[in-house]
């Protein structure tokens, strides 16, 4: 709570770039793409993503690191729009990137994440987690409200909403779109280099972005799935039975009715 009060008092700068997201929607992927657009692939290999693109909610290397950063700051947060210093965002025209992903795949990815993290101490089955997810009992939830709050600002000139499935379908086009929002002109060669660097295979092997160091810190259970597990669209089919799928379809229809989005559930 104390740190949340500090976040409310946090002051943005004119050229800040912020990635806002619900957990497990493609945050790390988007962060690395943005960093490479602004600084180049080679520079991204020099230090961990946590240091290059700090997490606002964390004491370290988050809020404290951000406040010490010089030049343009890249910031990550899972906080919903309502908990961010909105007046500051509007006044300073901070560039906000928001990424959405279909809720079924989010639920599966989130399940593996909480099982992986020692701090969550979660050992339940996917059936258990599914019920928690549908009951809005997961951190930073409910997902529909998180999405809705940013969707209400989709026409703000300083906000760009992206979709995980679009990045999967057309990574080059997505990089071009992101670069345009950042007022950066990239050559086709540069776009190709970033796309290759940010492919799932390469990122999953890159210790600067795959949070491999969490093992040594005791944050991750090495017996569970890796931080970067599959990076697919449609993995939910391996976990949902027909009843679950139908139940979530109705839940989405009821809770996401004010978000005019048709989520893609398979490639």
TrEMBL record:
The keyword Oxidoreductase does not apply. This is Sulfotransferase family cytosolic 1B member 1. Residues 15-258 form the Sulfotransferase domain. It comes from Araneus ventricosus. Pfam families: Sulfotransfer_1. Keywords: Transferase. The keyword Isomerase does not apply. One of its GO terms (molecular function) is sulfotransferase activity. The lineage of its organism: Eukaryota, Metazoa, Ecdysozoa, Arthropoda, Chelicerata. Belongs to the sulfotransferase 1 family. InterPro entries: P-loop_NTPase, Sulfotransferase_dom. It comes from the Eukaryota.
């Amino acid at each position: 709570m104390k740190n949340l009060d500090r976040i409310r008092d946090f002051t943005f700068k004119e050229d800040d770039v912020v990635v806002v997201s619900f957990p497990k929607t493609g945050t790390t992927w988007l962060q690395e793409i943005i960093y490479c657009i602004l600084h180049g692939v080679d520079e991204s290999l020099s230090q961990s993503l946590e240091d290059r693109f700090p997490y606002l909610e964390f004491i370290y290397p988050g809020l404290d690191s951000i406040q010490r950063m010089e030049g343009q700051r890249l910031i990550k947060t899972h906080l919903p729009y309502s908990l961010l210093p909105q007046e500051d965002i509007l006044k300073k025209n901070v560039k906000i990137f928001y990424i959405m992903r279909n809720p079924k795949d989010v639920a599966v990815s989130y399940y593996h994440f909480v099982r992986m993290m020692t701090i969550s101490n979660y050992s339940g089955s996917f059936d258990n987690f599914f019920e928690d997810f549908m009951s809005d009992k997961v951190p930073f939830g409910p997902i529909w409200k998180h999405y809705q709050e940013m969707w209400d600002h989709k026409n703000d000139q300083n906000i760009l909403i992206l979709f995980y499935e679009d990045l999967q379908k057309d990574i080059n086009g997505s990089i071009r779109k992101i670069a345009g929002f950042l007022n950066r002109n990239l050559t086709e060669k540069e776009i190709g280099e970033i796309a290759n660097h940010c492919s799932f295979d390469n990122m999953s092997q890159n210790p600067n972005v795959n949070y491999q160091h969490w093992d040594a810190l005791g944050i991750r259970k090495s017996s569970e799935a890796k931080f970067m597990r599959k990076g697919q669209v449609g993995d939910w089919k391996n976990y949902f039975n027909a009843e679950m799928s139908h139940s979530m379809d109705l839940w989405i229809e009821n809770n996401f009715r004010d978000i005019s989005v048709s989520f893609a559930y398979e490639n």
